[in-house]
Amino acid sequence: MKPTLLVLAAGMGSRYGGLKQMDGLGPSGETIIDYSIYDAVNAGFGKVVYIVREYFKEQFESVVKEKYSGVKCPDGSPLQFEFVTQELNKIPAGFTLNPERQKPWGTAHAVLMAKDIIKEPFAVINGDDYYGKESFKVLADWLKAHENTKGQYCIVGFELDNTLSESGGVSRGICHYDKNNTLTSIVEHLNIAMTPEGKVFGDNSTTLETHVELEAKALCSMNMWGFTPDYFEKSAEIFNDFLKENISELKKEYYIPYAVDLMTKAGDASTEVLSTPSRWFGVTYKEDRPAVVAKFKELADKGVYPTPLYRK
Questions:
Q1: Lower CB density within 10 Å: C or N end of the chain?
Q2: Number of neighbours of residue 84 by Cβ within 10 angstroms
C-alpha cells in the first residue's frame, strides 16, 4: 500500500501576504507544492489530500486537476487526489462556536478534517515549505515499514541552520529526543537568526530566556510528520478535551506538537525523530521570494528537476 501525502494548504500566510500556495516560483511557474508533489511521487506516495479553505477550494481544485491530470506513480498507476476543507464550524457536536472567532483552529484540527478519507499511513507537510527529495524518501520509507503498526509516529527533523531566513528572525521548534531517537519534547524558540560570525541565537518561549545560543545542527520541526491512521481517533479525543477548555477563546489553536505530546505522555504513542540532509526553504516573508526563485532556477539548471516540472 502506498502512503498518502496530506498537504496543509488552508493558511494565507499573514506575513507573506496573498495565497502563496498558488504562487509560481519555479522557472516555468511551478509552485512550492508542485515540487513537493513531484518529490513525494518519486519517493513512493500514491495519493495527495489537500486541506484548503472553502472560499478558494474551487479555484485550487481546478488548477491542481489541470496540472496533475497525467501524473503517474512509478508503477504506472495514476496519482490520486482528494480535497477537504477546514472551517471554524467544523467542530464536534455539542460545542457552540464563539461568533467573534476568526482564527482557524490550528494544524492538528486541519489534519482531523481528513479522518474519513485516509485509511493508510500518511505524511503531513505544509503547502508553503520546500522539504527536498531526501526528506520525502526518508519519510516514505518509514511509512511503508510501519504499515501495520499503531501508535508509532515519526517527525523529520531539519538541521536548524538549514532552515533560517535571510529576511528576518524565524520561529522553530527544537526537537529533543533520547538515545533511541525517540522524541521527548519540542521546545519552541522565537526570533531565531544567525549572526555574521555564524552563531545562531533565539528566544526560548518556554523559559522566556532571550537571545539564547542554539546549536546550529540541532534538529528542528518544519511540520513534516508521519502517522498511522490510528492517529485520527486519538487526536479527535484530545481535540474534544481542548474545546472543553477553549471553545470561547478567540486565538487558542490546536497544534500537531501539542496533540503528539499529550499522546506521548499518556503512553499512547512514540515518535521517532528522523533526520534529513535537505535544506529547507520557503517564503516566510515577501522578501524571501527572490531568493526562493533563484534556488529553484539553480536546481533546474543543475538537472535536479526538469523544467517545466510537469509536461502534458
A1: C
A2: 21
Could you tell me how many helices (H) and strands (E) the chain has, helices first?
7, 13
Strand stretches in the chain, DSSP E: 4-8, 47-52, 80-85, 122-126, 129-130, 152-159, 170-177, 183-194, 200-204, 212-214, 219-227, 270-276, 281-282
Closest CA to 108 of 171, 51, 165: 51
Separation between Cα atoms, residue 273 and residue 213, nearest integer Å: 22
Q: Which residues does residue 226 pair with via DSSP β-bridges, in sequence order?
A: 123, 154
Q: Per mean pLDDT, which range of 115-119, 154-158, 203-207, 241-245 is the poorest?
A: 203-207
Amino acid at 226: G
Q: At what angle do helices 256-265 and 230-246 cross, to 10 degrees?
A: 100
Please write the tens of the pLDDT for every residue from 126-145.
988 999 999 999 999 999 99
Distance CA 239, CA 105 (A): 10
Q: At what angle do helices 32-43 and 133-145 cross, to 10 degrees?
A: 40
The gap between the terminal CA atoms of the chain, to the nearest Å, is 27
Contact 21, 60 (CB under 8 A): yes
Residue 14 has pLDDT above 60, yes or no: no
Q: Where are the domains of the chain?
A: 4-301
- Spatial separation of the C-alpha atoms in residues 40 and 125, rounded to whole Å: 11
Distances (CA, A) of 3 to 46, 61, 72, 185, 235: 6, 21, 15, 26, 19
Class of domain 4-301: alpha beta
The rounded distance, in Å, linking the Cα atoms of 29 and 25 is: 6
Cell 533546474 sits on residue: 300
Cell numbers representing residue 241 in the block: 478535551
Whole-structure pTM value: 0.93
Per the model's pLDDT, the better-predicted residue between 253 and 310 turns out to be 253
